[in-house]
Amino acid sequence: MRGLWHNLWLIPALPLLTAGITSLLKQPRRKAAATLAIGSMAVSFLLSCLAFAGTLGGEAARHIHNFAWFQMGSASLQLGWMLDPLTAVMLVMVTFVGLLIFIYSVGYMAHDENFTRFFCFLSLFAAAMLGLVIANSLLLLFICWELVGFASYILIGFWYQKPSAAAAAKKAFITTRIGDIGLFLGMLWLYKETGTLLFYDNGQGCLEQSALTKLVGQTIGGGMAVSTAISLLIFCGAIGKSGQVPLHVWLPDAMEGPTPVSALIHAATMVAAGVFLVARMFPLMSTGPTMETGGTPVPLTTALAVVTWLGAITSTFAALIAVAQTDIKRILAYSTVSQLGFMFVGLGVGGVAVGMFHLITHAFFKALLFLGAGSVIHGCHEEQDIRRMGGLRKFMPVTFATYAVGMMALSGFPLLFSGFWSKDDILHSAWQWPVSKGPFVLAAFGALLTAFYMTRQMCYVFFGESRTGFQPIPAEHGNDRVGQPGSLSYVTPHESPPVMTLPLVILAVFAVLLGFLGTPAWPWFQSFLNGENAHFGLAHLSHALPTMLLSTLIAAVGVGLGWRLYGAKPIESAEQRDILQEKQPTLFRWLRDKFYVDELYERTVIALNADWARLCDFFDRWVWGGAVKLVSLAAQGFSDLSKLLDEFVVNGGFDASCRRVTGGGKLMSALQDGQVQNYLRAVALAVVALVLALLWGCK
Amino acid sequence: MTTAPLLTLLSLTPLVGGLVVLFTRKEAARKAALGFSGLALFEALHLLLRFNSATPQMQFEEEHAWIPALQVHYHLGIDGLGLLMVLLSALVVPMAQLLSSRSVERPHVFHALVLFLQAGLFGTFTALNFFHWFIFWELSLIPAYFLIKLWGGPQRVAAATQFFLYTLVGSVAMLVAFQAIYLATDSFDFQVLAKIGSSGELAAKLGQLHLGGITGHSLVMLVFAGVLLGFAVKVPMMPFHTWLPSAYAEAPSSVTMLLTGAMSKMGVYGLLRLVLPLFPAQVREWQTPLLWLAVGTIVLSACAAFAQKDLKRMLAYSSVNHLGYCLLGIFAVAGVTGTDARWSLEKAAALNGVLLQMFNHGITAAALFGFVALIEQRSGGLCGLDDFGGLRNAAPVLTGLVGIALFASIGLPGLSGFVGEFLIFKGAFALVPWAAALSALGLLMTAVFLLTLVQRVFHGPLNERWSGFADLTWPERLMVTPALGLMFLLGIWPQLVISFINTGSVQAVAWLAR
Question: In the A/B pair of chains, how many CB contacts fall below 8 A?
Fold first, then answer.
């Protein structure tokens, strides 16, 4: 549809309007809230599809629309939105996954007393996320970026009565804000150097050639190009938002939020915003030295190398932790951290298309897994510990089938599942990366672990005999949801209602089908993002065959190992120790306790911050305040001294003269005592004296 | 201009109002006071409507000879900055009156003092001659002193005395400095002084004086330091801020709304109206240490806020932190001379940011202390961070509305705080990158302590003690609505304010270029 990009703002505006209206609805208006939210999301989805279709037509690849926000001095601050393949893909993904999760939430949140509020917050999130995606200005992107962070904060803390949820919400906001400070400074720097924050502005934008040339040309201390410094600062924001090491600690805790939130925000969309940011800023990040490999220049910038290495480290690190977790959602959370690492590797070694392909496929299968986990939790009466599940495939067939699809996609099960193709694409690019094979090795190991821990989880949750009736086991470190002993009676798990299973089925279909849009034989997705036409050719396939075989091998080894350890001999009781724990107790403890990163931060950064705050307070009260008190004491002492002086020196003389005056006065007043006869006597005496004197004088 | 003396009327309204309220019946005092502050608000809005935003010139000017022998003229006028501050004072005072406790003792005296304070504010923000400007500056201090001393918390006497003496020391320093300026220039007029200040003539003339054996450059710097001290105490700038936490914490919350909402802006206003125009070269000379003080104000106060155990003390430090950004912006723009268009743009951005921040902080901080007042009314005066817990369970509407104000304070985009801070940082980062980068730590720390506040007071399970905690009533919701509405409005559409401050900022930049 022509000209839709003029009105692209409608796509985020609709959910925003819904959020506004819903915030004013009273709690009992459940149906109205859900209908409005789902309705506006559906319309946004349709509009996104139209916009997407518009980018297919081979018209100019990028439409922009800029406008002035406010004046400053003689210039004005410009914001804008744009439509290009990257935006279009994200729009469709966010609205589609969002729509399904909205529908699912109707079932999942049915018994929650703040149902209306939940849809208000979800709509606000959707609006901010869609705004982030269409932004043609780093400032607008940052604004929406902060707003998705805010939405994430209020949704993680949705069950604010739970202290753990309240703490997790705060942790999420602050940890991501650490990264955001970097992004903020990077944005200011970019603004300073280029004079604009518009990405594209008919040649004047900050991602266009003239600006980039200028940025590469300048260097700061240490010979680093300004473009590199800005890229790294901006990447800080992505590290925080996408939960990369060392700022990954908030994401697993964010699972305190309701499961649809975990699926939508902390798996499919918001956490991928960091990846999207790097993809959006890719022209800046990739400006610099290149190397020819196979006829195409590959960017080899410091910024991209950092992105690659950090992603590779995170992908393995988080996968290792996921191996030893027992909370169904936390396993998936660490898996998300790990997969986001894969995406960064993809961006770093293969460019926008490779990273984005995994982002899109991951959004679908991870949303599927989270919603499946939600269905499991719902069916097991709010149980999240996989040790107290088991045998669920009999009770929850639809959930089992769809979860299995998601698990295969995530593990990279060959050919049929989307995750295989997107992960293979990353491994293939990493193998060809001319700088180092390190990221490839790390990512391959991460992929192996992924297949392993997902198999472990499947075995614990769906296979074997049901362990739901067992007594709850005593609290252990890292496991904070333990009921009172004996309070759980034997409960039978049940399948979830269709409003929850239908989204699962739809997502499962896409978790399979999406892969075929980006196979080496027909890389339509990659070509679309790069603005090229895709060609079908089996020749590409043969080129990619070695890594495909390797990926297959990795997945097979991971699944096989997992099945051997956990599936072959069913787990019998919830108290049974993990088989890894039996064999490698020390290693298992480290993995289970997440390499003690939280504890490390607790002892260092957080403790230091608290001490520093107390020091500042002490300084204020006693040093500055003390100095002021000292001055006032000195002033008081001085005034006391002068008081003494006054009393004994100045007043002494003064008093003496006063006394004389008083004495004289007393004398005089004694004369004037008001006794008329005395006056008369005096007058008489005076008259006599006068007469005598006169007589005397007249002689 | 031969129009009605609107500015004189504006200052007279609360002054007369205060006198009237003093002699009304106790029961009617609150309503009568609201009537007068409402009238003042109406007058201020009238000024806004008639204000010509296309020119940086002073408007609604009134000038009459008063003591010709001393060059003292009664000279009033406002530009965008003055108008913004008048609007802020006109908004914050009725807000504070509405949210003040109904059971306040001697309400007629209380409300009369609040109106006198407003008169002082209006006078300060409209005066263009040092003589009566200083009278109003001091006039606003006296009602504030009595409001703290008579209606404050347990430590009120000490807090009030410290507040009064501290500010007085600053004022005396400033007064002496202006005596020297008068000796050198024979003028008390702000506009005259600004003109010779920006051309460097003021410094030259001051340097020729001989006062107590001091002369030349050291005398100029001494005079500059005297003027600066007066405002630095008022803002406050580290290390002259120690009066503030106890004054804000001991004053009744409605009075703190006035202190932080309007009175703290007098300091920043003075820096913009007097220090930058009169002493541009001197600010430049001391720029690095001054920027360090600004960074310290921002970062250390945010850190100190984290250590507080009392809502009011925490918000007091938060207030210091937010005004620190104004200091950062002001000291940053003094750095570079010349008319290079690029620097001019950055400076104009920073100055617009400072003005926006002044207004936004005034509204936000006043609203936050207003919420504290509402909480105190329910808790019997308790406002420790650990006295509550889980209030959201009992009072969801209160929590939601406080949340809006808190996130405006944190600087969440979409709410008013963000735009001002963004513009200050944009300008400051271009002009003095190191100071802006260090100050960004303050943005992080603000989030840390304000979210801690939310977590401890509102989230978690409900503290049994407050199971009967009442949510906001409809009248209370209406009282805070204008402030919250402004937070959204100015967050989304800042042009509303920028439209009438921008020309002034551009002119200030032009003056600074010399």
Answer: 151
Joined tokens for residue B405: 């104000």
Angle at A72 between CA A213 and CA B434, to 5 degrees: 60
- Angle, helices A352-379 vs A273-280, to 10°: value is 170
Q: Please answer yes or no on whether B242 and A624 come within 8 Å at the CB atom.
A: yes
Nearest to A170 by CA among B455, B407, B117, B420: B455
- pLDDT, one tens digit per residue, over A431-458 is 988 888 999 999 999 999 999 999 999 9
Query: In one letter, which amino acid is A474?
Result: P
How confident is the model over B406-464, as pLDDT tens digits? 999 999 999 999 999 999 999 999 999 999 999 999 999 999 999 999 999 999 999 88
Q: Which of residues 387-406 of B touch A (CB under 8 A)?
A: 390, 392-393
Looking at residue A198, the DSSP 8-state letter turns out to be B
Distance CA B97, CA B113 (A): 11
CB contacts of B412 in chain A (<8 Å) are: 146-147, 150
B426 closest CB neighbour out of A177, A188, A624:
A188
Do B435 and B328 form a contact (C-beta atoms < 8 A)? Answer: yes
Alpha-carbon distance B305 to nearest alpha carbon in chain A (angstroms): 7
Q: Is A464 left (phi over 0), alpha (psi -120 to 50) or beta?
A: left
pTM of the model: 0.90
The single residue listed with the structure tokens 């007029």 is: B189
Minimal CA–CA distance to A389: which of A289, A470, A330, A304?
Answer: A470
User: Looking at beta carbons, which pairs linking B194-197 to residues 24 or more positions away fall under 8 Å?
Assistant: B194/B277, B194/B278, B194/B511, B197/B277, B197/B278, B197/B279, B197/B280
Which residues of chain B from 239 to 258 reach within 8 Å of chain A, CB to CB?
Answer: 239, 241-243, 245
User: What tokens were used for B217?
Assistant: 């450059």
User: Phi/psi of residue B185, each to 5°?
Assistant: -115, -15
Task: Indicate the DSSP class of residue A476.
Answer: B
At residue B203, the pLDDT reads: 86
Interface-testing mutation among B459, B462, B487, B511, with chain A (most A C-beta atoms within 10 A): B459
Instruction: Tell me the one-letter amino acid at A561.
Output: L
Distance from CA of A129 to the nearest CA of B (A): 14
Measure the CA–CA gap between A692 and A697, rounded to whole angstroms.
8
Name every chain A residue with its beta carbon within 8 A of the beta carbon of B392.
160
Contact B54/A at CB under 8 A: no
Helix/strand/coil for B285? helix
Confidence of residue A697 (pLDDT cuts 50, 70, 90): low
Q: Does A191 touch chain B (CB under 8 A)?
A: yes
CB–CB contact B459 A166 (8 Å): yes
DSSP one-letter code for B339:
-
